[in-house]
């Protein structure tokens, strides 16, 4: 959950925490979602109304949702490597 730009809705600054969430393929949503859930006293679907779709620098790019939805590629750092440890 992050703050959004007042002039450009559903866009947020690229902070370290936002970049960590993108790297972990998490949903990045506006704080307005939490307010809506509390006001309605139930879980409100966060997509597409509250999911962040861009940032304040590059505007709208949907990189956050693409990171989360593109499961066909294995992004783990050492995914294609095997290790053999030889101990004496």
TrEMBL record:
Gene3D superfamilies the record matches: BRCT domain
PROSITE patterns the record matches: BRCT
Signal peptide boundaries: none
Domain BRCT: 1-51
Protein name stated in the entry: BRCT domain-containing protein
Taxonomic source organism: Rotaria magnacalcarata
